Amino acid sequence: DLDQRQHNFSAGPGALPTEVLEEVRAELPVYPGVGASVMEISHRSPAYSEIHERAASRMRGLLGMGDDWHVLFLQGGASMQFHQVPLNFLPDDGSADYIDTGAWSAKAIKEAEIVGAGRNAGPRVAASSRDDDYTYIPGADAWDLNDGAAYLHFTSNNTIYGTQFAAEPEAAAPLVCDASSDFLSRPLDVDRYGLIYAGAQKNIGPAGVTAVLVRDDFLERRHADLPTMLDYGTHAAKIFNTPPVFAVYLVDKVLGWIEANGGLAGMVERNQGKADALYGAIDASDFYRGTVRPDSRSQMNVCFRLPSEELEARFVKEAKGAGLLALKGHRSVGGVRASIYNAIEPASVTALVDFMGRFEAANG
Ligand code: PLP
Protein backbone atom coordinates (compact mmCIF):
# COMPACT_ATOMS: atom_id res chain seq x y z
CA ASP A 1 0.00 0.00 0.00
CA LEU A 2 1.23 3.53 -0.70
CA ASP A 3 0.93 4.48 2.97
CA GLN A 4 3.56 1.82 3.71
CA ARG A 5 6.14 3.87 1.83
CA GLN A 6 9.04 4.93 4.04
CA HIS A 7 11.54 7.79 3.82
CA ASN A 8 13.83 6.69 0.99
CA PHE A 9 17.30 8.26 0.86
CA SER A 10 18.62 5.92 -1.85
CA ALA A 11 21.40 7.33 -4.05
CA GLY A 12 20.14 5.55 -7.12
CA PRO A 13 17.78 4.41 -8.29
CA GLY A 14 16.30 7.08 -6.06
CA ALA A 15 12.84 7.86 -4.79
CA LEU A 16 10.06 8.82 -7.20
CA PRO A 17 7.27 11.25 -6.30
CA THR A 18 4.45 9.34 -4.62
CA GLU A 19 1.89 11.28 -6.68
CA VAL A 20 3.53 9.96 -9.84
CA LEU A 21 3.43 6.37 -8.61
CA GLU A 22 -0.25 6.76 -7.80
CA GLU A 23 -0.95 8.02 -11.31
CA VAL A 24 1.06 5.23 -12.88
CA ARG A 25 -0.70 2.61 -10.78
CA ALA A 26 -4.08 3.88 -11.94
CA GLU A 27 -2.97 3.76 -15.60
CA LEU A 28 -0.96 0.57 -15.45
CA PRO A 29 -3.41 -2.02 -16.77
CA VAL A 30 -5.06 0.28 -19.31
CA TYR A 31 -3.48 3.44 -20.72
CA PRO A 32 -6.35 5.91 -21.29
CA GLY A 33 -7.94 5.55 -24.73
CA VAL A 34 -5.73 2.67 -25.82
CA GLY A 35 -7.24 -0.49 -24.34
CA ALA A 36 -3.85 -1.89 -23.33
CA SER A 37 -1.02 -1.09 -20.97
CA VAL A 38 1.58 1.42 -22.11
CA MET A 39 4.03 -1.50 -21.87
CA GLU A 40 2.07 -3.41 -24.48
CA ILE A 41 1.82 -0.88 -27.29
CA SER A 42 4.01 -0.15 -30.29
CA HIS A 43 6.63 2.53 -29.96
CA ARG A 44 5.36 3.72 -33.36
CA SER A 45 1.79 4.15 -32.08
CA PRO A 46 0.26 7.63 -31.81
CA ALA A 47 -0.17 7.15 -28.04
CA TYR A 48 3.53 6.49 -27.51
CA SER A 49 4.63 9.21 -29.95
CA GLU A 50 2.61 11.66 -27.91
CA ILE A 51 4.30 10.55 -24.66
CA HIS A 52 7.77 10.72 -26.20
CA GLU A 53 7.23 14.14 -27.77
CA ARG A 54 5.61 15.53 -24.63
CA ALA A 55 8.54 14.37 -22.48
CA ALA A 56 11.02 15.99 -24.88
CA SER A 57 9.08 19.22 -25.06
CA ARG A 58 8.62 19.36 -21.27
CA MET A 59 12.36 18.93 -20.84
CA ARG A 60 13.10 21.75 -23.29
CA GLY A 61 10.49 23.92 -21.57
CA LEU A 62 11.83 23.33 -18.05
CA LEU A 63 15.39 24.15 -19.12
CA GLY A 64 14.45 27.04 -21.43
CA MET A 65 15.91 25.33 -24.50
CA GLY A 66 15.05 26.28 -28.05
CA ASP A 67 14.23 23.94 -30.93
CA ASP A 68 17.94 23.70 -31.73
CA TRP A 69 18.23 21.19 -28.87
CA HIS A 70 17.64 17.51 -29.55
CA VAL A 71 16.26 15.50 -26.63
CA LEU A 72 17.22 11.84 -26.88
CA PHE A 73 16.12 8.95 -24.69
CA LEU A 74 18.90 6.38 -24.94
CA GLN A 75 19.90 3.16 -23.21
CA GLY A 76 23.21 2.01 -21.80
CA GLY A 77 23.16 4.36 -18.81
CA ALA A 78 25.36 7.35 -18.17
CA SER A 79 28.24 4.85 -18.35
CA MET A 80 27.64 4.42 -22.08
CA GLN A 81 27.84 8.20 -22.46
CA PHE A 82 31.36 8.13 -21.00
CA HIS A 83 32.36 6.39 -24.25
CA GLN A 84 29.82 7.77 -26.70
CA VAL A 85 30.78 11.40 -26.03
CA PRO A 86 34.46 11.06 -26.99
CA LEU A 87 33.60 8.61 -29.78
CA ASN A 88 31.50 11.34 -31.38
CA PHE A 89 33.40 14.47 -30.40
CA LEU A 90 37.04 13.79 -29.57
CA PRO A 91 38.92 15.08 -32.62
CA ASP A 92 41.30 13.00 -34.76
CA ASP A 93 44.05 15.31 -33.71
CA GLY A 94 43.64 17.34 -30.54
CA SER A 95 42.05 17.02 -27.13
CA ALA A 96 39.12 17.59 -24.88
CA ASP A 97 39.41 18.97 -21.34
CA TYR A 98 38.08 17.01 -18.37
CA ILE A 99 37.65 18.14 -14.76
CA ASP A 100 38.23 15.18 -12.44
CA THR A 101 36.07 15.50 -9.35
CA GLY A 102 35.35 11.90 -8.47
CA ALA A 103 34.96 8.28 -9.44
CA TRP A 104 32.45 9.06 -12.21
CA SER A 105 34.66 11.74 -13.75
CA ALA A 106 37.57 9.30 -13.65
CA LYS A 107 35.50 6.71 -15.53
CA ALA A 108 34.62 9.31 -18.18
CA ILE A 109 38.33 10.16 -18.55
CA LYS A 110 39.23 6.49 -18.90
CA GLU A 111 36.80 6.05 -21.79
CA ALA A 112 38.13 9.16 -23.53
CA GLU A 113 41.60 7.63 -23.23
CA ILE A 114 40.37 4.44 -24.89
CA VAL A 115 38.84 6.41 -27.77
CA GLY A 116 41.85 8.71 -28.02
CA ALA A 117 44.28 5.79 -28.25
CA GLY A 118 42.94 5.08 -31.73
CA ARG A 119 43.30 8.73 -32.73
CA ASN A 120 46.04 11.28 -32.23
CA ALA A 121 43.96 12.68 -29.40
CA GLY A 122 42.99 12.26 -25.79
CA PRO A 123 41.53 13.83 -22.69
CA ARG A 124 43.49 16.52 -20.86
CA VAL A 125 42.82 16.64 -17.15
CA ALA A 126 42.39 20.37 -16.65
CA ALA A 127 41.83 20.09 -12.89
CA SER A 128 41.45 17.38 -10.29
CA SER A 129 40.55 17.07 -6.61
CA ARG A 130 41.90 13.53 -6.36
CA ASP A 131 44.75 14.79 -4.15
CA ASP A 132 42.31 15.27 -1.27
CA ASP A 133 40.01 12.28 -1.79
CA TYR A 134 37.65 14.29 -3.97
CA THR A 135 36.38 16.29 -1.00
CA TYR A 136 36.13 19.56 -2.93
CA ILE A 137 35.53 21.12 -6.34
CA PRO A 138 38.78 22.70 -7.57
CA GLY A 139 38.56 26.51 -7.72
CA ALA A 140 38.66 28.08 -11.17
CA ASP A 141 42.08 29.60 -10.45
CA ALA A 142 43.49 26.05 -10.39
CA TRP A 143 42.10 25.05 -13.78
CA ASP A 144 44.46 24.62 -16.69
CA LEU A 145 42.00 25.02 -19.55
CA ASN A 146 42.81 24.71 -23.22
CA ASP A 147 40.77 27.25 -25.20
CA GLY A 148 41.07 25.03 -28.27
CA ALA A 149 39.60 21.96 -26.56
CA ALA A 150 36.80 20.19 -28.44
CA TYR A 151 34.74 20.38 -25.24
CA LEU A 152 35.10 20.66 -21.48
CA HIS A 153 33.62 17.68 -19.63
CA PHE A 154 32.58 17.95 -15.99
CA THR A 155 30.41 16.04 -13.52
CA SER A 156 28.04 18.62 -12.07
CA ASN A 157 27.31 16.59 -8.94
CA ASN A 158 29.44 13.87 -7.44
CA THR A 159 27.06 11.27 -6.13
CA ILE A 160 29.63 9.27 -4.18
CA TYR A 161 31.60 12.05 -2.45
CA GLY A 162 28.77 14.58 -2.08
CA THR A 163 30.27 17.56 -3.88
CA GLN A 164 28.62 19.77 -6.49
CA PHE A 165 29.66 22.60 -8.81
CA ALA A 166 28.00 25.77 -7.53
CA ALA A 167 27.76 27.02 -11.13
CA GLU A 168 28.88 26.12 -14.63
CA PRO A 169 32.64 26.23 -15.29
CA GLU A 170 33.72 29.33 -17.20
CA ALA A 171 35.38 28.05 -20.36
CA ALA A 172 35.77 28.94 -24.00
CA ALA A 173 35.03 25.37 -25.10
CA PRO A 174 31.44 24.09 -25.18
CA LEU A 175 30.50 22.31 -21.95
CA VAL A 176 29.65 18.62 -21.84
CA CYS A 177 28.13 17.61 -18.54
CA ASP A 178 27.37 14.39 -16.72
CA ALA A 179 24.38 15.73 -14.81
CA SER A 180 23.13 12.32 -13.68
CA SER A 181 22.70 13.13 -10.02
CA ASP A 182 21.47 16.72 -10.10
CA PHE A 183 19.60 16.90 -13.40
CA LEU A 184 16.56 19.18 -13.26
CA SER A 185 17.25 20.04 -9.64
CA ARG A 186 18.14 23.62 -10.69
CA PRO A 187 18.25 25.76 -13.86
CA LEU A 188 21.20 25.54 -16.26
CA ASP A 189 22.79 28.22 -18.42
CA VAL A 190 22.04 26.09 -21.47
CA ASP A 191 23.75 28.35 -24.01
CA ARG A 192 27.09 27.33 -22.56
CA TYR A 193 26.54 23.63 -23.19
CA GLY A 194 26.96 21.42 -26.24
CA LEU A 195 25.67 18.26 -24.61
CA ILE A 196 24.16 17.24 -21.28
CA TYR A 197 23.50 13.65 -20.23
CA ALA A 198 21.87 12.09 -17.22
CA GLY A 199 20.84 8.61 -16.20
CA ALA A 200 17.18 9.07 -15.30
CA GLN A 201 17.23 7.00 -12.15
CA LYS A 202 18.01 9.73 -9.64
CA ASN A 203 16.03 12.88 -10.30
CA ILE A 204 13.78 12.21 -13.26
CA GLY A 205 12.57 8.63 -13.44
CA PRO A 206 13.41 4.95 -13.20
CA ALA A 207 16.53 3.13 -14.39
CA GLY A 208 16.56 2.11 -18.04
CA VAL A 209 16.69 5.42 -19.84
CA THR A 210 19.38 8.08 -20.16
CA ALA A 211 18.42 11.58 -21.19
CA VAL A 212 20.85 13.12 -23.67
CA LEU A 213 20.38 16.73 -24.72
CA VAL A 214 22.53 17.86 -27.59
CA ARG A 215 22.60 21.21 -29.34
CA ASP A 216 22.37 21.06 -33.10
CA ASP A 217 25.50 23.08 -33.91
CA PHE A 218 27.55 20.91 -31.53
CA LEU A 219 26.06 17.72 -32.99
CA GLU A 220 27.25 18.82 -36.42
CA ARG A 221 30.87 18.59 -35.22
CA ARG A 222 30.71 14.84 -34.63
CA HIS A 223 32.79 12.26 -36.47
CA ALA A 224 31.51 10.63 -39.62
CA ASP A 225 31.23 6.85 -40.07
CA LEU A 226 30.35 5.99 -36.50
CA PRO A 227 28.60 2.75 -35.56
CA THR A 228 24.92 3.48 -36.21
CA MET A 229 23.66 3.03 -32.65
CA LEU A 230 26.52 5.07 -31.16
CA ASP A 231 26.08 7.99 -33.55
CA TYR A 232 24.01 10.69 -31.82
CA GLY A 233 22.89 11.78 -35.28
CA THR A 234 20.99 8.50 -35.71
CA HIS A 235 18.81 9.24 -32.70
CA ALA A 236 18.50 12.96 -33.36
CA ALA A 237 17.06 12.23 -36.82
CA LYS A 238 14.24 9.96 -35.58
CA ILE A 239 13.24 7.31 -33.07
CA PHE A 240 15.59 4.75 -34.59
CA ASN A 241 14.84 1.59 -32.60
CA THR A 242 12.58 0.57 -29.72
CA PRO A 243 13.09 3.08 -26.91
CA PRO A 244 12.60 2.11 -23.25
CA VAL A 245 8.90 2.86 -23.52
CA PHE A 246 7.88 2.40 -19.89
CA ALA A 247 10.86 4.39 -18.56
CA VAL A 248 10.13 7.30 -20.92
CA TYR A 249 6.46 7.19 -19.88
CA LEU A 250 7.55 7.56 -16.25
CA VAL A 251 10.01 10.34 -17.08
CA ASP A 252 7.18 12.24 -18.75
CA LYS A 253 5.10 11.87 -15.56
CA VAL A 254 7.97 13.11 -13.37
CA LEU A 255 8.52 16.11 -15.65
CA GLY A 256 4.81 16.89 -15.32
CA TRP A 257 5.23 16.69 -11.54
CA ILE A 258 8.18 19.13 -11.68
CA GLU A 259 6.06 21.54 -13.76
CA ALA A 260 3.20 21.28 -11.27
CA ASN A 261 5.61 22.02 -8.42
CA GLY A 262 6.94 25.32 -9.69
CA GLY A 263 9.36 24.11 -12.37
CA LEU A 264 13.07 24.39 -11.73
CA ALA A 265 12.62 27.48 -9.55
CA GLY A 266 10.29 25.40 -7.40
CA MET A 267 12.86 22.60 -7.25
CA VAL A 268 15.59 25.05 -6.16
CA GLU A 269 13.46 26.30 -3.30
CA ARG A 270 12.48 22.80 -2.25
CA ASN A 271 16.04 21.43 -2.51
CA GLN A 272 17.65 24.41 -0.80
CA GLY A 273 15.30 24.06 2.16
CA LYS A 274 16.07 20.35 2.53
CA ALA A 275 19.84 20.78 2.18
CA ASP A 276 19.92 23.72 4.62
CA ALA A 277 18.02 21.69 7.21
CA LEU A 278 20.35 18.71 6.94
CA TYR A 279 23.67 20.60 6.77
CA GLY A 280 22.37 22.84 9.57
CA ALA A 281 21.88 19.77 11.77
CA ILE A 282 25.39 18.51 10.94
CA ASP A 283 27.00 21.90 11.62
CA ALA A 284 25.14 22.34 14.89
CA SER A 285 26.60 19.12 16.29
CA ASP A 286 30.08 17.90 17.21
CA PHE A 287 28.87 14.32 16.89
CA TYR A 288 28.20 14.50 13.13
CA ARG A 289 30.93 15.70 10.79
CA GLY A 290 30.42 16.67 7.16
CA THR A 291 33.01 15.08 4.87
CA VAL A 292 33.42 17.74 2.17
CA ARG A 293 34.53 21.34 2.08
CA PRO A 294 31.51 23.54 2.89
CA ASP A 295 31.89 25.57 -0.34
CA SER A 296 31.65 22.36 -2.38
CA ARG A 297 28.68 20.76 -0.64
CA SER A 298 26.14 18.91 -2.74
CA GLN A 299 22.47 19.73 -2.41
CA MET A 300 21.67 16.20 -3.58
CA ASN A 301 23.96 13.79 -1.70
CA VAL A 302 24.76 14.77 1.88
CA CYS A 303 27.70 12.76 3.27
CA PHE A 304 28.72 12.72 6.92
CA ARG A 305 30.62 10.69 9.49
CA LEU A 306 29.98 9.74 13.11
CA PRO A 307 32.70 9.32 15.76
CA SER A 308 33.28 5.63 14.89
CA GLU A 309 32.47 3.06 12.22
CA GLU A 310 30.61 1.08 14.83
CA LEU A 311 28.33 4.02 15.56
CA GLU A 312 27.85 4.55 11.81
CA ALA A 313 26.71 0.96 11.36
CA ARG A 314 24.33 1.29 14.30
CA PHE A 315 23.02 4.62 12.96
CA VAL A 316 22.20 3.11 9.56
CA LYS A 317 20.55 0.04 11.14
CA GLU A 318 18.47 1.95 13.68
CA ALA A 319 17.48 4.52 11.05
CA LYS A 320 16.13 1.69 8.93
CA GLY A 321 14.12 0.48 11.91
CA ALA A 322 12.71 4.01 12.19
CA GLY A 323 11.58 4.02 8.54
CA LEU A 324 14.58 5.90 7.10
CA LEU A 325 15.97 3.79 4.26
CA ALA A 326 19.28 3.53 2.38
CA LEU A 327 21.49 5.82 4.47
CA LYS A 328 24.71 3.79 4.21
CA GLY A 329 27.52 5.72 2.50
CA HIS A 330 29.05 4.45 -0.74
CA ARG A 331 31.31 1.45 -0.09
CA SER A 332 34.39 3.38 -1.23
CA VAL A 333 33.79 6.24 1.22
CA GLY A 334 31.93 4.77 4.22
CA GLY A 335 29.94 6.84 6.71
CA VAL A 336 26.42 8.02 6.03
CA ARG A 337 24.98 9.40 2.81
CA ALA A 338 21.50 10.87 2.57
CA SER A 339 20.43 11.40 -1.03
CA ILE A 340 17.81 14.12 -1.13
CA TYR A 341 16.86 14.29 -4.79
CA ASN A 342 13.89 16.31 -6.05
CA ALA A 343 11.30 13.72 -5.04
CA ILE A 344 12.36 13.47 -1.38
CA GLU A 345 9.73 15.25 0.68
CA PRO A 346 10.84 17.99 3.08
CA ALA A 347 9.02 15.93 5.74
CA SER A 348 11.46 13.06 5.11
CA VAL A 349 14.40 15.36 5.84
CA THR A 350 12.66 16.58 8.99
CA ALA A 351 12.22 12.94 10.06
CA LEU A 352 15.94 12.32 9.45
CA VAL A 353 17.02 15.43 11.38
CA ASP A 354 14.77 14.39 14.29
CA PHE A 355 16.27 10.89 14.23
CA MET A 356 19.82 12.37 14.20
CA GLY A 357 18.99 14.37 17.33
CA ARG A 358 17.61 11.31 19.13
CA PHE A 359 20.56 9.15 18.07
CA GLU A 360 23.09 11.71 19.28
CA ALA A 361 21.28 12.11 22.59
CA ALA A 362 21.42 8.33 23.13
CA ASN A 363 24.97 7.77 21.88
CA GLY A 364 26.82 11.08 22.04
N1 PLP B 1 27.49 9.49 -13.37
C1 PLP B 1 27.08 9.77 -12.12
C2 PLP B 1 27.31 11.15 -11.58
C3 PLP B 1 26.45 8.79 -11.36
O1 PLP B 1 26.05 9.06 -10.11
C4 PLP B 1 26.25 7.50 -11.91
C5 PLP B 1 25.57 6.43 -11.13
O2 PLP B 1 25.36 6.50 -9.95
C6 PLP B 1 26.71 7.24 -13.20
C7 PLP B 1 27.30 8.27 -13.90
C8 PLP B 1 26.55 5.90 -13.85
O3 PLP B 1 25.25 5.82 -14.29
P1 PLP B 1 24.64 4.51 -14.97
O4 PLP B 1 24.50 3.51 -13.87
O5 PLP B 1 23.34 5.01 -15.52
O6 PLP B 1 25.57 4.05 -16.01
TrEMBL record:
GO terms for molecular function: O-phospho-L-serine:2-oxoglutarate aminotransferase activity. The keyword Cytoplasm applies. Gene3D superfamilies: Aspartate Aminotransferase, domain 1 (3.90.1150.10), Type I PLP-dependent aspartate aminotransferase-like (Major domain) (3.40.640.10). Its main location: cytoplasm. Residues 8-351 form the Aminotransferase class V domain. InterPro entries: Aminotrans_V_dom, Aminotrans_V_PyrdxlP_BS, Pser_aminoTfrase, PyrdxlP-dep_Trfase, PyrdxlP-dep_Trfase_major, PyrdxlP-dep_Trfase_small. Keywords: Amino-acid biosynthesis, Aminotransferase, Cytoplasm, Pyridoxal phosphate, Pyridoxine biosynthesis, Serine biosynthesis, Transferase. It is found in: Cytoplasm. It catalyses: O-phospho-L-serine + 2-oxoglutarate = 3-phosphooxypyruvate + L-glutamate; 4-(phosphooxy)-L-threonine + 2-oxoglutarate = (R)-3-hydroxy-2-oxo-4-phosphooxybutanoate + L-glutamate. Its cofactor is pyridoxal 5'-phosphate. Pathway: Amino-acid biosynthesis; L-serine biosynthesis; L-serine from 3-phospho-D-glycerate: step 2/3; Cofactor biosynthesis; pyridoxine 5'-phosphate biosynthesis; pyridoxine 5'-phosphate from D-erythrose 4-phosphate: step 3/5. L-glutamate binds at R44. Pyridoxal 5'-phosphate binds at A78, S79, W104, T159, D178, Q201, N241, T242. Signal peptide: none annotated. NCBIfam families: PRK05355.1, serC_1. Belongs to the class-V pyridoxal-phosphate-dependent aminotransferase family. SerC subfamily. Homodimer. Catalyzes the reversible conversion of 3-phosphohydroxypyruvate to phosphoserine and of 3-hydroxy-2-oxo-4-phosphonooxybutanoate to phosphohydroxythreonine. This is Phosphoserine aminotransferase. The gene is serC.
